[in-house]
Specification:
Helix 4 links the parallel strand 5 and strand 6. This protein folds into two domains: about 170 residues, Nucleotidyltransferase, domain 5, CATH 3.30.420; about 30 residues. It is elongated and about 65 Å long. About 40% of the residues lie in helices and about 15% in strands. The strands form two sheets. Strands 1, 2, 3, 4, 5 and 6 form a six-stranded mixed beta sheet that branches. It has a two-stranded antiparallel ribbon with strand order 7-8. The chain is of the alpha/beta class and about 230 residues long.
Length: about 230
């Protein structure tokens, strides 16, 4: 599966109220590996950024004046995204802006171009309920180096999110191990199917059981007592 991690910067918070995209960053993953086939666009939004937005991304109105408008890069962007799974942190926000830009130039919504949109924020909330799940918080939690992120930038944020996503989804692959670490899609590299092996069952020790119970308690506390296992136990 070809995946594109995507991020945008905008003039403000509401596409419906006239805010526009000023920057798009895209990072490609193939077989969960970075390919380096990335895309990065600065765009002239034909309006000034709100003061609060400017504090977030630091991209001046003057800098954007000679940059292309969205319509000039739309075809290249859509061709690049075609049939890929798009991974976005807080996807409804970015998708609403992409759809508005496409609407303004008479093109259909982004869902007609891509195979799937995955919201990494929703994934993180399911994995870490009750905790902060901003990109910075996830970088800290998953040990992704974000020391170079002083301001938001679409390409840098997409690169960080790609690392975060890979860490979030570790262990979701099937039980198949490549014999060679250099296998490419479509080659004849032999694989070992681990499902044919009888795996030993290791029981948890007392310390592991206690840590597990503590984790369940923390999750139950974060959900204000609404966890299914507590309800069933009662």
């Amino acid at each position: 599966m070809r995946q594109i991690v995507l991020d945008t910067e905008t003039t403000g918070l509401s596409a419906e109220n006239g805010d526009r995209i000023i920057e798009i960053g895209c990072v490609e993953l193939v077989a969960r590996k970075l390919t380096g086939n990335n895309r990065h666009f600065y765009l002239n939004p034909e309006r000034d950024s709100h003061e609060d937005a400017l504090k977030v991304h630091g991209i001046s109105n003057e800098f954007l004046k000679d940059k292309p408008k969205f319509v000039a890069v739309a075809d290249e962007l859509l061709e690049y995204l075609q049939d890929a799974e798009i991974i976005i942190h807080n996807a409804p926000f970015d998708v609403s802006f992409l759809n508005k830009e496409l609407e303004l130039i008479g093109k259909p919504p982004i869902k007609h171009c891509v195979a799937k949109v995955t919201d990494s924020l929703m994934m993180a909330k399911e994995m870490f309920p009750g905790k902060r799940n901003s990109l910075d918080a996830l970088c800290d939690r998953l040990e992704v180096d974000n020391s170079g992120r002083t301001l938001h930038g679409a390409l840098l944020d997409a690169e960080l999110l790609a690392d975060v996503y890979i860490n979030l989804t570790r262990g979701q692959n099937s039980l198949v191990m490549e014999v060679s670490g250099n296998a490419q899609e479509g080659d004849n590299t032999p694989q070992v199917d681990l499902s044919t092996f009888e795996l030993p069952l290791l029981a948890a020790n007392d310390q592991e059981i206690a840590e597990h119970e503590k984790l369940l308690g923390d999750i139950d506390k974060a959900s204000k007592g609404k966890t299914v296992w507590r309800a069933l136990a009662a």
